[in-house]
Amino acid sequence: MSKEITSREKDYSQWYNDLIIKSGLADYSAVRGCMVIKPYGFALWENMRDQLDKMFKETGHQNAYFPLFIPKSFLSKEAAHVEGFAKECAVVTHYRLMNDPNGGGIVVDPSAKLEEELIVRPTSETIIWNTYKTWIQSYRDLPVLVNQWANVVRWEMRTRLFLRTTEFLWQEGHTAHATSQEAIDETLQMLDIYATFAEEWMAMPVIKGVKSPNERFAGAEDTYCIEALMQDGKALQAGTSHFLGQNFAKAFDVQFTDKENKLDYVWATSWGVSTRLIGALVMAHSDDDGLILPPKLAPVQVVIVPIFKGEDQKKIIDEKVKSFMEDFKALNIRVKYDDDDSRRTGWKFAEYEMKGVPVRIAIGARDLENNAVEIARRDTKEKSSVSMDGLANTVSVLLNDIQQKTYDKAKDFRDNNIRKADTWDEFMSLLDTDGGFVSAHWDGTAETEEAIKEKSKATIRCIPLNNKKEEGACILTGAPSKERVLFARAY
RNA sequence: CGGGGCGUAGCGUAGCCCGGUCAUCGCGCCACAUUUGGGAUGUGGAGGUCGCAAGUUCGAAUCUUGCCGCACAGACCA
Per-residue DSSP letters for A396-448? Predict the structure, then answer.
């Protein structure tokens, strides 16, 4: 990798961190690798969560909650699973503190050692499948369609706000089915839900695909994913849906009697998205002036800023704004009236741009005279004067337009950054200069995939669903290949 | 864990080579005044064990040693 690219990456990384902090989404915390999600960031997460939750429920899922702690022995029951997670687990070994007998502070009480250590969940497959064993006996108990909203802990070596923190919030769905086909259908259904959410709500185009064996979830038969492209040309896995086969059912001995009175192991799926989506949102749309949030998810869709001299003017504006607010609320538009006099107008303009509020309305004496207000849209920064009559409707239409334009812009960028490479040199040069997805032939072996990763730092992001079959030669080995796969450097 | 870099006010920093009015500057914070259609200006003010410890010295932010912590690139990864 060239020096220039390293420095570009560093700048982008700096820009990303600053933006998260300045916009008030989150902050570093006292604990290594953990972050504080601030009220603004959490409001954004709540909007995402509520919409996803709705989509899960519409497809027959229910929420439940399982313990944070997992007995160590559970984790080791599925061989690939433990292999995948063992290196990043936080472990609880004691349950009590005591005053330090040597004076001063507080120490762990050595007599309070747990007989079996508890793992802070890095994901909940094991504790959930241990529970499902008691829930499932007959085909009549199936399917089990459960989701949980929870926090998980993965002791990663390198962390990054929202994209990879030691603790993060997510949802994890865990379903059990009578047949393989039904489980596969579920896996794909959830992948579709994620893709729909990403595109229609986050305004972020994604590629649906299946992971190569190397990139597969620990314990899965197949891992499906949605892959997004960030503005710096790196890819981001934005969600995953796993077909787990009978692996966990076998590990936890979850069998059921089918209609023919035959005993069989149940078929499983798991799927999840996390607060990483917030990081994706930031990197997909923002510019140098701050965040650009898609209206459907923005905690505040419209901010109204009064411009006035003296209390008399303020009163008249207040009166006008009050009636606008009612109109907005009637259309379910999330609106904020910022009449805080301790901040100046220019400061507020810049602040709400930083926070990515899609629409800003300014109203002052000049506007009152003209029966108009000034509307500024965050995405293009265009300003225009519009009539006060039917303002809520005007804004409603504008919000839809912003949502659409935000998606279109991200899609153009993404589409322009999928390039084909037919030789190794071409491949490397594309990665080093443009980044983005590189569509290339691969001989299908894990060794080659590993070697490509080693040499280029690029991984196979996915094999797109409904991928076009095309004869070709592997970019590294020249061995025959039947289709192109998508490579990228990734977060 | 090993490789180069860094620890000075809430944040960002100057000073360190060459020890001595040296704790600098900007942002932010507080008060008052004038301001308010794109991050205001002026005046005044508060805020520091210079990462920790030991050593050298008449004297250490500055030199030496040890420790601690941090960010960066690598193995891990939603």
Answer: HHHHHHHHHHHHHHHHHHHHHTEEE--SHHHHHHHHHHT-SEEEEE--S-HHH
- For helices A391-416 and A310-330, give the axis angle rounded to 10 degrees: 70
Q: Give residue A2's pLDDT.
A: 33
Residue A8: per-residue pLDDT: 59
CA dist., res. A255 & res. A252, Å (int) = 9
A53, A86, A106, A112, A439 from A63: Cα distances, Å: 9, 27, 39, 35, 39
Q: Enumerate the β-bridge partners of residue A256.
A: A264
Å: A163 CA to B4 C1': 27
Whole-angstrom CA distances from A256 to A130, A195, A246, A393 are 14, 33, 12, 56
Specify the pTM. Answer: 0.94
User: What secondary structure does DSSP assign to A170-212, as a single string?
Assistant: EEEEEEEESSHHHHHHHHHHHHHHHHHIIIIIS----EEEE--
Chain B, protein-covered positions (CB within 7 A): 1, 35-40, 69-78
User: What do you get for the CA distance between the two ends of chain A, in Å?
Assistant: 16
Q: Rounded CA gap, A231 and A218, in Å?
A: 29
Quickly give A151 CA vs B40 C1' distance in Å.
Answer: 45
Q: ipTM of this predicted complex?
A: 0.84
d(CA A308, C1' B44) / Å:
29
How many CA atoms lie less than 13 Å away from A425 in the CB half-sphere? Answer: 0
**Nucleotide nearest to A276 in CA–C1' terms:** B78
pLDDT of A29 strictly over 90: no
Two tokens at A260? 């023919």
Each residue's pLDDT tens digit, A60-115: 999 999 999 999 999 889 988 888 888 888 888 889 888 777 665 677 888 889 99
**CA A409 – CA A416 distance, rounded (Å):** 11
The CA distance from A300 to A43, in Å, is 9
Non-local CB neighbours of A459 within 8 Å, separated by 6+ positions:
A214, A215, A449, A453, A487, A488, A489, A490
Residues 6+ apart with CB under 8 A from A389: A371
Q: A42-72 burial, b if ≥16 CB within 10 A, otherwise e? A: bbbbebbbebbbebbeeeebeeeebebebbb
